[in-house]
Design brief:
119 residues, two-stranded antiparallel sheet, single chain, 2 strands, mainly alpha
């Protein structure tokens, strides 16, 4: 009995140590976050000349979740709100969205890699 308890304790200690050494997973986006971020990136792609949407990331998220932003009413309202914001101060909006969503940021974008350079 002592051997069984000792073996179980050893297994649990080894398992918890292995889990502790794994790198942390990237945080997952909620539906609202994804829709809001995609709206912000779409507006940046429209108004910030050298950027375009990262179709690979968007298609992957859409495939994994089944959420297609252009059909969602929250996306449309968020995009209209952000479009007004972008028009009021385009330079600030473009620099902020590049900081948040540009795939080329080192080490990584603050929120999600939704924007890339136009070819």
């Amino acid at each position: 009995m002592k051997q069984l308890i000792g073996a179980a304790a050893g297994f649990l200690i080894g398992y918890s140590a292995a889990i502790a050494q794994e790198p942390p997973l990237h945080p997952r986006l909620t539906k609202e976050q994804f829709l809001s971020y995609s709206a912000g990136a779409a507006v940046a792609a429209m108004y910030c000349g050298k950027l375009e949407l990262n179709a690979d990331f968007l298609e992957g998220y859409e495939y994994a979740t089944g959420i297609y932003p252009p059909l969602d009413p929250y996306f449309r309202s968020e995009m209209a709100r952000l479009e007004k914001s972008a028009k009021s101060d385009l330079k600030s909006y473009c620099s902020l969205t590049k900081l948040m969503f540009y795939k080329g940021n080192k080490p990584k974008p603050l929120n999600a890699p939704l924007l890339i350079d136009k070819p």
